[in-house]
Amino acid sequence: SQQYIEQSVKDSAEYYAISAYNMSAALHYVHGLAVSVSRQGNMKTYFYGNLSEAEKLDKESIGLYQKSANKTGLAVTYDHLAFACFGQSKYDEALKYSDESYAVYKKNQDETGMTGILELITQIYLKRGEFDKGFDAGQLALQLSIHSGVRTEINDCLLGLGTLCMGIEDYSLALNYYRPVFQNFTAEDSIRLLKSEDLVWAKMEYAEIYSHLNMFDSALYRYNLFDTSKVPEKDLRIFLVSKGEYFMLTGQYEKALPNLLRGLAIH
User: Fold this and answer.
1) DSSP letters along 202-242, please?
2) N or C, which end of the chain has less CB nearby within 10 Å?
3) Averaged over 3-13, what is the pLDDT?
4) How far separated are the first and last CA of the chain, in Å rounded?
5) pTM score of the predicted model
C-alpha cells in the first residue's frame, strides 16, 4: 500500500490497505489494524486533501497503537496527525501531536524523523505568530539535517526557514534560503517533496518571493513552468491563489479576482 501511495496509484494503495485491515481483523492482530488505519489516514490527505477524515483515522490508529506492544509506525502516525490538524488551523493540537511524534522519534534515535517533525513545528510556530520559537525549531532541524549529510533533508529545512522569513516579510532573506534549493533542484527533490505533499507549495512560494521583491519577470517565469493541465484540484487551488497574489502585486486586479475566487471555491 505504501509503495503504491508513493507511486500515486490510488486504487491499488487503497485496495492493499483495506486488505491488510480485513486480514488483521480476522486475526485479531492489533498492530496490523493500527498500521492499515494509519495508511488510510495518509491517503485521505495525499489523494483527496481531506484533512478532517485523515485526523479521524489517525486518532483511531493511535488508539489501536496504544493497545499494541509493537509501536512501529506510531511516530509517523503522530506526525501525520499533526499535519492534518495543522492544515485545519488547529495549531494547539498540531503542536501537541508534533511533540508526541518528536518524543517517539527521539526515543528511536530517528534523526530523519526528528528533522521532519521539527520542520512542521517551525511552521506551526509561524502560524501562531511565535517567530523566535519557529526560528529555533528551524535551526535545530537544519543542524540535524547537516549532521545527517542528506542533501534533500537540508533542502527541506532551508525551505522551511524561507517560509518563516516570508511570514515576517523578510523576502530578501527568504530568497537566500529558497534560491540554493531551486538552483540545484533534481528529480529526487521533486519526489521527496511530493511525498511530503509540499512540492506545489514550495514552487508557488518561490515565485511569490520574487513578486514581493518586485522581480515580476522572474516570478512569471516560475509560474509559467507550472503545467496546470496535469494537476489535481488540491494542487491547482494552490497555484490559483498564488498567481492571484502575483496579479494583485502587479496591480492587475481584474485578473486576480477570478483566480482567487476559483481557488477559494476549490479550498
Assistant:
1) HHHHHHHHHHHTT-HHHHHHHHHTS-GGGS-HHHHHHHHHH
2) C
3) 94
4) 27
5) 0.80
